Amino acid sequence: MTTKKILVIDDEDGIREIIQICLEAAAGWDVFTAASGSEGLATAQAEQPDAILLDVMMPDMDGPTTFRQLQAHAATKHIPTILLTAKAKISEQQQFIDLGVTGVITKPFKAQDLVNQICGILNWKK
């Protein structure tokens, strides 16, 4: 079995670091990070990750805009994308699902639960 590659796109350094450490330590996945939507687009095209964790609220290019850009490129439109959001209302989450994202994980999340949440959304075995 090959190691999963995950791209984390979030403008907050601390969030990126926590997610990267958690996914590498708990699941053994290779984790790439990007601090902005535009950096994330370039990294997704170059690295071809198995999944993307994408923050909703970012300056310059927000998560939904970044997701639409990912969907617009043949090289990245197949990559499952999970949004990370502080918006916990079901109606808000439904709007994101309606965009076509694979899933939504609400912040704050427990680091130890993150791998299980990602595996559950993507139907991956741990």
Per-chain topology:
Layout: E1 5-9, H1 13-27, E2 30-34, H2 37-47, E3 51-55, H3 63-72, E4 81-85, H4 90-99, E5 103-106, H5 111-122
Protein name: Response regulator with CheY-like receiver, AAA-type ATPase, and DNA-binding domains
GO molecular function: DNA binding
GO biological process, one term: phosphorelay signal transduction system
Summarize the structure.
The modification 4-aspartylphosphate is found at residue 55. The chain is α/β, with parallel strands linked by helices. The chain has helices at residues 13-27, 37-47, 63-72, 90-99, 111-122, and strands at residues 5-9, 30-34, 51-55, 81-85, 103-106.
Strand arrangement across the biggest beta sheet: 2-1-3-4-5
Class, according to the CATH hierarchy? Answer: Alpha Beta
β-strand amount: 15-25%
* Overall morphology: globular
Largest sheet, described in full?
A: 5 strands, parallel
For this structure, the CATH topology is Rossmann fold
Identify the CATH architecture: 3-Layer(aba) Sandwich
Radius of gyration: 13 Å
Proportion of helical residues: 40-55%
What's the tally of helices? 5
Low-confidence stretches: none
Element string (H = helix, E = strand): EHEHEHEHEH
Overall strand count: 5
GO molecular function, one term: DNA binding
Organism: Allocoleopsis franciscana PCC 7113
Protein name: Response regulator with CheY-like receiver, AAA-type ATPase, and DNA-binding domains
InterPro entries: Bact_response_regulator (IPR050595), CheY-like_superfamily (IPR011006), Sig_transdc_resp-reg_receiver (IPR001789)
